[in-house]
Write a structure and sequence with these properties.
Radius of gyration: 31 Å
Shape: elongated
Strand order of the largest sheet: 5-2-1-7-8
Number of helices: 1
Strand content: 25-35%
Order of helices and strands: HEEEEEEEEEEE
């Protein structure tokens, strides 16, 4: 003989299982939600400074990589054209910096306060890049332009281009007489680069 199981189904028209008054089934109370929100805010508060440092480091590395690429571009353009190319680095009154690559005399191009290059008539501006103060990264000005000689393929004078971040980290781009670039960081302040001698 088959046995039938008895199931506890609600009677037609019933609202389902009853719960204690004032307490919804499942879900979180207001106190639990506030506790979860407080924990989330504490965790975010600890993570935000780290994210700011990470972003500053990425900016510093990006400007250094672009500067290195432009140095190689200046050397190859000088050799290809057989004409000298100059790298000029200037500080801006606003606290930022800019650099320019051009084929004129050392003082033929200057940066305006908004980081744009302005050159004398007949001078070809090959490249310019500005770093506003708001980025937190600046390139230290050079006392005199770096000359890439198109006939000899050399650089005079040799130079150390110093990129400085607002948080104290720095990357130096050392340009040797052959126009090769070596990157280093003072005191090992930037991970992945060797310390400067």
């Amino acid at each position: 003989m088959a046995q039938h199981r008895k199931t506890n189904l609600p009677a037609p028209g019933a609202d389902g299982p009853r719960h204690r008054a004032g307490r919804p089934a499942g879900g979180l109370s207001m106190v639990e939600l506030l506790c979860a929100l407080a924990i989330t805010l504490v965790l975010l508060g600890g993570a935000l400074p780290m994210l700011g440092e990470l972003r500053q480091g990425q900016r510093l590395n990006a400007v250094a990589a672009l500067l290195e690429t432009d140095i190689h571009f200046a050397r190859s353009t000088a050799i290809r054209s057989g004409r000298p190319v100059r790298l000029v680095v200037q500080s801006l009154a606003s606290g930022g910096s800019c650099y320019m690559l051009h084929d004129g005399a050392g003082d033929a191009c200057t940066c305006t306060d908004d980081g744009r290059a302005r050159c004398d008539a007949g001078v070809q501006l090959l490249r310019s890049e500005g770093q506003p103060a708001s980025t937190g990264v600046a390139l230290a000005a050079l006392a005199r332009p770096v000359l890439f000689d198109g006939r000899k393929g050399t650089v005079t004078p040799t130079a150390t281009l110093r990129l400085l971040a607002r948080d104290g980290r720095a990357i130096h781009q050392v340009v040797n007489i052959m126009g090769r670039v070596r990157s280093c960081t003072p005191g090992g302040s930037v991970g992945g680069l060797r310390p400067c001698d």
